[in-house]
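To: structure subgroup
Subject: Chain for Friday's discussion

All,

I'm putting the inputs and outputs inline so they're searchable in the archive.
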Amino acid sequence: MPSPGSVRATLVSLGAKDSFSAGWSNVSAEVRRVRAGILICIAVFILAGTLPARAQISPGALSKPHESLSGPTQCASCHKVGFGSAVLKCQECHVEIAQRIAQGRGFHARLVNKADCAKCHSEHNGEDFPLIHWLPSLKAFDHNQAGYPLQGKHAGLECNQCHKPENIREAGHGLIRIKDLRRTFLGLSPGCVTCHVDVHKGQLGPNCAQCHNFTNWKSATQFDHSKTRYPLTGLHGPVACAKCHAPAGPKNEPRFRGIPFAKCSDCHSDPHHGRFPETCVTCHTTSGWRKIAGHDRFDHSKTKFPLLGGHAQVDCVRCHAGGDFNKPLAFANCSDCHTPNPHGGQFRARTDKGECSACHTVDAWKPSRFGVKEHAVTAYPLEGGHASVPCAKCHTPAGAATRYKIAFARCTDCHTDVHQGQFAKPPFAGQCEACHTIAAFQPSTFTIAQHQKSRYPLAGAHLAVTCSECHAAAKAQPPSRTAPYRFEDLTCTGCHTDPHKGQFRDRMAQLGSNGKPLGCEACHTIQSWTNVKEFDHSKTSFPLTGAHVKVACDGCHKPEREGGSISQVNFHSTPVQCSGCHVDVHAGQFSHSGQPVDCALCHSSAQWKPSLFNHETGSTYSLKGAHEKVPCESCHDRYRVVAGKRVVFYKPTPRECSSCHN
C-alpha cells in the first residue's frame, strides 16, 4: 500500500496541486472530504495496475442510485482522469440536466459553475445519504433561481402542488432518470396549462398571461377588448363576459371566436317587432337603449308634444309603453301622465282643479314656483321671519303624504312651546304673541313696565339686571334646558346664595311692613349689596360707639382664613374684648393671671388718648400738689424693646424724690 507521501506526489504529478490546496482551504468540511475522496480514487485508479488488491482504497460507499458504479475500477465512469484538476462527468449520464443547461432553462442553467455538481450533490457518504443538499433548505428555496418567480397566489403553494407526475408532459418522461416521478422537480413547463385547465379550449392561444394575472383569474385585467374586431362602447363595457360569450355547441363550451356581431339583432331582440324598417343605430346608441340618438334623427318638436325641460330626459318607454309609438297618448293635462296625484288631491278645490303647472314647470319638479308672493293669497300669508322659512320646515316632506293644508291658528301648532307651559294660564293663555313677534323670536317684547305688573316688580339694582341672569336654565329646580319664568320662592335666597350660611336666619325671618319676611333686606338693600344701613349694631351685644362707628365691617369681621371671602366670616365669633382686635401696646404689664387686660380702665372707644387712668385710685402714689400737672412721660420714661418695639414700662417706677429731682 502506498504511503500518504507517495499518494500526494502522484496527485501533484497529475496537476491537482492547486485545486487540491484551494479546495482544502475554501470549501466546507463535507465538500473537502468528497473532493479528497475523488482525488484519492483517481490516484488509486492509476496505481491499481501496480498494487495488490488489498492495497486499493476508496473515499466511501456510493449512494443507492449510484451503487452500480461501486468499485475502484468504476471511478472513471464519473471522474474524468487527466492532467490538471479533476472534473466530474455528471452531465454525461444526466443528459436531462445537460440539455436544460444548453437551452438556458431551469435552475442549473443559472449556476456560475455549471459543472460543480458536488456543491449540492455529495457522494461517497454511504448508500442512504441524500444526494440533494438544499441551500438553505427545501422550504426556503428561492424559486426565482429556477427561472419561474412565484407571484400572486402561486407564492403560497406547497412544492408538491405543482411538482407532481400528472403535470409532467409524457414526452419528457424518457429524459428523467428518476423513475419515481413524485421525487423529481424536472419536467414542468412554465405554461399555465401545465397545471390549469384551459377553459377557452385553445381558442385564445396558450399565453394566458396576455389576459389574466397571478392574483385573480376571473379578473382579466390584461385583456383589452378595444383591440379586437368589436370594441366595447357605452353600456357594452360593464356587461359580464359570459353574457356574450355564453356556452354553446354540443359540448356546451364558452365561445370566444366566431360570434356574430354585425347587427344589433345578433344579440338583441327587436322590441318594436319590425314596425321600423330602419336599423337600431338609426335611433339608438350603445350609451343607452332608451336614449334616442340625436334630434337630427328624430325630432319630437315636430309632434304635438314637444319635449321641453325635464321631459327631454325621459325614456321613450315611460310614455310609449311597450315600444308602441303608434298608440295615441293623452297629454292635455299633467295628470294625464303623472298619476296618481302626488298631493293626494289636496288642491282639488282650487279653480284650476290642482293643475300641476300652477306651481311646477317642465324644467324640474323642484323647486316649486309657489313662493311668498303666491302664499300671500292663502289663508296664511308669510310675513316677518316666516317669509324666509323653507317650505319643508312647515310642510314636512313625506312623499305623497306631505301635508299642505295644516293648522296655523296658534303658534304652538307649528312651534314647540319652549317655556313648557309656564304661560299656559291667564293672563297669557299660551299666546306667544304676547311677548314675541313673527319678525323674530328674540328679543322679547315683554318690557320692564309689564314686569312691574307681575308678582315681582323690579326695583333698585334689579332694574339693570339682564333677563337671562334670573331666567336661566341653571336657575330651574332641578336645573333643566328650559329657563324658569315662574318662581315660587320670591325671596332673595330664591336667586342668591346666602353668603352668611344661615347666621342671620332669625333676622331674615322677621316680618316687614308688607307682612312678608325681610330676608336679606333685614341688613341690605336692593340698591346695593354693600349698603348695610338697615343693620343696627346697637341692637347687638356690642354697640358701636366712639371711634368704632367709623370702622369698616371687615375691620372686625374677618374671614377665618387670610384672603378669604365674606362667605367665610363667622359674625357670631367676633371677639368683644379690646385684645380680640387690638394689640396690647403695654406688652402685658397690666395683665393679671394670664387674663387679657381691660383697656376700658384707662381708655375709651371715643379716643385712646388722653388716658382715663386715675392715679389717686388706681395706684399707691398720690399726685397731690405740684405733681398733678406733671406730664406722665416725665416720670414714666423707662423703655424696653419687646418684639422689636419700644415699650414704656410703668412698673417699677421709682418713688424716691431723688430719683426724679437733683
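Points worth raising on Friday:
The two ends are 152 Å apart (CA to CA).
The first strand starts at residue 79 and ends at 80.

D.
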